[in-house]
Amino acid sequence: MTQRPYKYRILVVDDEEDICDILQFNLQQAGYDVDTAASAEEALLKLKSEFHIILLDIMMDGISGLKMAQLLREEYNNPIPIIFLSALDTEADILAGFQKGGDDYIPKPFSVKEVLARVNAVLHRIYE
User: Fold this and answer.
1) What are the distances in angstroms from CA 23 to CA 62, 72, 97?
2) What is this structure's pTM?
3) How many C-beta neighbours within 10 Å does residue 102 have?
4) SS3 at position 1
5) 19 φ/ψ sector (left φ>0, alpha ψ -120 to 50, else beta)
6) CA 77/CA 62 separation, integer angstroms
7) Residue 6's pLDDT is what?
8) pLDDT tens column, 47-106
9) Is the N end or the C end of the chain the one with fewer CB atoms within 10 Å?
10) CA 40, CA 57: separation in Å to the nearest integer?
11) In this predicted model, what pLDDT tens digit does every residue of 10-44 receive, in sequence order?
């Protein structure tokens, strides 16, 4: 993936620090500007800044990723694209992610190359 002259800003929300670090490093290497949050509560505060896409874990203490997505869509009327990253991988889990406003859903464990490809696809579809 080539670096773009305009940097898209990505927010990675996951309570597993290793996952945040791996995604942040790889997304930055691909030319994205990346910030991380360890909880939905922290992410909602960071969303006062502009981000172009959120990579969102579902199972977190406090507000779950599904609840955060629902809040963004219904209460904040925020159309920011969301890609769920979750260990919940049944058909019902994946459908729940889409019903709460997700644009894509990647089960854990995931391939970093696949995450990069899906992020690029969603950003290209929405913003280019």
Assistant:
1) 22, 22, 20
2) 0.94
3) 24
4) coil
5) alpha
6) 21
7) 62
8) 999 999 999 999 999 999 999 999 999 999 999 999 999 999 999 999 999 999 999 999
9) C
10) 9
11) 999 999 999 999 999 999 999 999 999 999 999 99
The answer to whether 122 and 108 have CB atoms below 8 angstroms apart is no
| E runs forming strands in the chain | 9-13, 33-37, 53-57, 82-86, 104-107
Residue 47 near residue 4 (C-beta atoms within 8 A): no
Q: Is 64 exposed, middle or buried (0-12, 13-18, 19+ CB in 10 A)?
A: middle
Tokens of residue 38, six digits: 């360890």
Based on C-alpha coordinates, what's the Rg of the chain? Answer: 13
Q: Answer yes or no: are the C-beta atoms of 33 and 9 closer than 8 Å.
A: yes
Tell me which amino acid residue 47 is.
Answer: L
